[in-house]
Structure formats: structure tokens, C-alpha cells
From TrEMBL:
PANTHER family: UDP-ARABINOSE 4-EPIMERASE 3-RELATED, UDP-GLUCOSE 4-EPIMERASE
UniProtKB keywords: Isomerase, Membrane, NAD, Transmembrane, Transmembrane helix
Full protein name: NAD(P)-binding domain-containing protein
InterPro entries the record matches: NAD(P)-bd_dom, NAD(P)-bd_dom_sf, UDP_G4E
GO MF assignments: UDP-glucose 4-epimerase activity
Length: 417
């Protein structure tokens, strides 16, 4: 008993010491775990703060979800002449606009004008991207909720298309396919396609109706027709709403002088006659070169239907308003009246007040003699008719912008300027 008691007496302190050591170890382990958790939380918080301060970190974009009652329109080529005017009109009408442009023909200056006019970051955004880049196009459609697409993006010079046809088939036909596939994949149901009267070629009868056979005679017109064919074929087995607008020669600029036409200097030789007239009036070039005086027209020069850009944009907006699922609308957008190049030059002389020197040369490859529209269908179905039909007045409006923007939108700007 004595030994047993002594052993018990000695064992009690040992057992007590062991329990205290265990408690102390547990406490230290818990303390270590708690410390590690707190440290992890601190590190995560610090990372979030750093990321939020980083220029590369962005919270969810307002363009990534739909806003009730507001139509979100993707405007491809929205930095270009016609596209920028369309974006301006859509923004004025309280639409949400995303401009996509690779700036190969467009002007960042036009986008900056729009951003100054509409500073709300939830109403307008610009994305620098090439529609030929499938990964970029898919990313654009994945990250934004579009209600409609207005597809303007295209190289658009007849003469250039005859010299570099593959570029035109890629830029117009292939890129349109890319946009169409992205729309189908992401459920965007409305397409307003900006086409051209060049798809008709040189019709035997005037004026041109929507039923006039399409027999284009240059790669520009052929590429546009192929794009139209793709869109129409796809629409037959989908519920997409499609509007195809075939428009004629565009002139003029924003009546309030905010936007205008400013092609790259190296592209002037391919550009519109209005641009050449203004360059001659400004003394940038010595005179105007009229190509072709032996066409079967009243004065031997080409006859065209000149449509003011403000009217053209209005037609696109009306097309958007009238687009219906499972329906394809095809419309000519013109004044219904043809004007010869000689008439145009005389109007330009009066608009600028400059006696422009004119040199007459041989025909330009791929041109056609006479083209003007019958716009009765678009009047009947969309209640659209051209309002700016005075050629000299449209040229005067454009001339005011040209005089105050002798260098276009300024020197070519970088994305970070």
C-alpha cells in the first residue's frame, strides 16, 4: 500500500504536467492557425487593393448587361465617315453605343468628339479591334450584351478594289462572316447591314429598284454582294431580323459641324469626288481630275445619285426601328435623281467659292456610266425620304467642316493620346 500510494503520489504531478503541456500545445497550434488565417486574409485584402488600383483591373462593365428600355447597338467601323455620323445619331436618340474599329480607315479623333459630346461612360464605349481577328470578335460579343449590330466596317474604294481584290474579299466578305457567326453564337438578333449600289453593277434600266438584277462589275461590289448572300442565306433558318441598305454616293457632313469626312492623305486618289473637290479648293492639290468623259450620258461624265450622310444615317435608324424577327428588308437609299460629275463640279465651285481647275482623264477601272435609285419602297415601308436634296447646300455644309479642319481631325493620334 505504501509503495502504491507513493507511486500514485508521484504520478499525479506527472499527469497534471502532461495535461498542461497538451493544453499549451493546443493553444499554440490554434494561435498559429489563427495567425495564418489572419495573414492570408490580410494578403488577399492587400492583393485586392493593389488590383483595384491597377489600370488593368476593371469592375464589371455597364455594357455587359442590358439596360431596360435602352437599345445597345454595336457600330462596326464607327470611327469612319458614315459610322461616326451613325453613332452620333444613335447617341442623340439615347441608345447605348459600342464602337469597334481598327482605325485603318477611321479616325480616333471622331471617337474623341463623340466622347466629349456624350461623356457618360455607360452610354458610349470604343473598342480597338480588327473584325478579322476571331478571338477578338468573340471576346467583344462575350463581354457585351448587344441588342443590334450596325455593320459599316469595310474598305470602300472602287478603284482600289480592282488593284487589290483579295483585300476587299477578306475585309468585306470574310469579316462579315465573322460578325454573323458571333451574332449567332451570342444570340444577337438584329442586323442592319450597310451595303452599296455597287452590287447592281451597270443596270440596263434606270432607275434602280430593289428587284434590279445584281451583276457587280468590280471586286468591291462583288464582295458586298457575297456578304449580302451570306446574311440572307443564314436568315432563312434563324429568327434574325435583317435590314440591308444599298446606298448610293454619300456626301455632306453633320449640319452642326461636329463631324466630317477625313480620309488618309495616301487614299485621296481613291476617294470620293467631294473630297477631291475640297482638296482642290484648299490648294492641297493643284486641281480636280475627272476620270471619264466618253460615257453614254448627257454630258459624257458619270451620273450618280448623291445622298447626304444625314439622310443616310436617318435611313439606318428607321431600319433599326422597323426590323422584325424572321424578316429581311432590302432597301435602296437614294434621292431618286442622278447628277453628272460635271454638274457636281459646278455645284462644288459655287459651294466653295473657288474656281477649281479641272483636268479630264481616261476612265477609271471598274466604273459604270449611270446609277440612280428608285427610293419608293423605303418611303412606302419605312416612311423614309431624303430631306437634304440640294447638292450645293450639302456641299456647303461639308465645306464649312473642311475649312475649319484643314488637317482633318488633326495628326494621327495614338490610342493613348
Amino acid at each position: 500500500m505504501l509503495n502504491y500510494s507513493r507511486n500514485r503520489a508521484h504520478s499525479k504531478p506527472n499527469r497534471s504536467f502532461s495535461l498542461e503541456a497538451m493544453d499549451l500545445a493546443d493553444s499554440r497550434r490554434k494561435s498559429n492557425v489563427t495567425g495564418k488565417v489572419l495573414m492570408a486574409i490580410s494578403l488577399i485584402t492587400l492583393c485586392i487593393i493593389i488590383l483595384k488600383r491597377s489600370p488593368n483591373f476593371s469592375s464589371p462593365s455597364p455594357f455587359s448587361h442590358r439596360q431596360p428600355g435602352v437599345t445597345h447597338v454595336l457600330v462596326t467601323g464607327g470611327a469612319g465617315y458614315i459610322g461616326s455620323h451613325a453613332a452620333l445619331r444613335l447617341l442623340k436618340d439615347s441608345h447605348r453605343v459600342t464602337i469597334v474599329d481598327n482605325l485603318s480607315r477611321g479616325n480616333l479623333g471622331a471617337v474623341k468628339v463623340l466622347q466629349q459630346l456624350f461623356p457618360d461612360p455607360a452610354q458610349l464605349q470604343f473598342i480597338y479591334a480588327d473584325l478579322g481577328d476571331a478571338k477578338a470578335v468573340n471576346k467583344i460579343f462575350s463581354e457585351n450584351e448587344f441588342d443590334a449590330v450596325m455593320h459599316f466596317a469595310a474598305v470602300a474604294y472602287v478603284g482600289e478594289s480592282t488593284m487589290d481584290p483579295l483585300r476587299y474579299y477578306h475585309n468585306i466578305t470574310s469579316n462579315t462572316l465573322m460578325v454573323l457567326k458571333a451574332m449567332a453564337a451570342h444570340g444577337v438578333k438584329t442586323l442592319i447591314y450597310s451595303s452599296t449600289c455597287a452590287t447592281y453593277g451597270e443596270p440596263k434600266k434606270m432607275p434602280i429598284t430593289e428587284g434590279t438584277p445584281q451583276v457587280p462589275i468590280n471586286p468591291y461590289g462583288k464582295a458586298k454582294k457575297m456578304a449580302e448572300d451570306m446574311i440572307i442565306d443564314f436568315s432563312k433558318n434563324s429568327d434574325m431580323a435583317v435590314m440591308v441598305l444599298r446606298y448610293f454616293n454619300v456626301i455632306g457632313s453633320d449640319p452642326e459641324g461636329r463631324l466630317g469626312e477625313a480620309p488618309r492623305p495616301e487614299l485621296r486618289e481613291h476617294g470620293r469626288i467631294s473630297g477631291a473637290c475640297f482638296d482642290a479648293a484648299l490648294g492641297i492639290i493643284p486641281g480636280l481630275k475627272v476620270k471619264g468623259t466618253d460615257y453614254k450620258t448627257a454630258d459624257g461624265t458619270c451620273v450618280r445619285d448623291y445622298i447626304d450622310v444625314t439622310d443616310l444615317v436617318d435611313a439606318h435608324v428607321k431600319a433599326l426601328a422597323h426590323a422584325k424577327p424572321k424578316k429581311v428588308g432590302i432597301y435602296n437609299v437614294g434621292t431618286g435623281k442622278g447628277r453628272s460629275v460635271k454638274e457636281f463640279v459646278e455645284a462644288c465651285k459655287k459651294a466653295t467659292g473657288v474656281d477649281i481647275k479641272v483636268e479630264y482623264l481616261d476612265r477609271r477601272p471598274g466604273d459604270y456610266a449611270e446609277v440612280y435609285s428608285d427610293p419608293s419602297k423605303i418611303l412606302r415601308e419605312l416612311n423614309w425620304t431624303a430631306q437634304y436634296t440640294n447638292l450645293q447646300e450639302s456641299l456647303q455644309t461639308a465645306w464649312r467642316w473642311q475649312k475649319s479642319h484643314r488637317n482633318g481631325y488633326g495628326t494621327r493620334m495614338s490610342l493613348h493620346s
